[in-house]
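Late entry, evening session. Most of the bench is empty. Finally got around to the prediction I had been postponing all week. Sequence below, unchanged from the version circulated by S.P.
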Amino acid sequence: MEGVGWLSFLVIGLIAGWLAEKILKRDHGLLTNLIVGIVGAYLGAFLFSAVGLAAGGFIGALITATVGAVALLALLGLIRGRG
């Protein structure tokens, strides 16, 4: 997520959280989507670097954050028993 300003980071987090919600067919609010997207952005960056991938620019950051947000929601679903 290098080279992305804080406002862009919030927009990317919000979109990524919303996309993750739609992909996993969950129903969360705007604030939850933002939080999931922001935490997912960090998780996605960690996962991408762990496997040697890098994504640049707005679209790359959005993809990274969305992958992380989906992984986060899936993990939380497993913990809560919603698989």
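Two things to note before I forget:
The two ends are 29 Å apart (CA to CA).
The chain has a mean pLDDT of 89.
Will write this up properly tomorrow.
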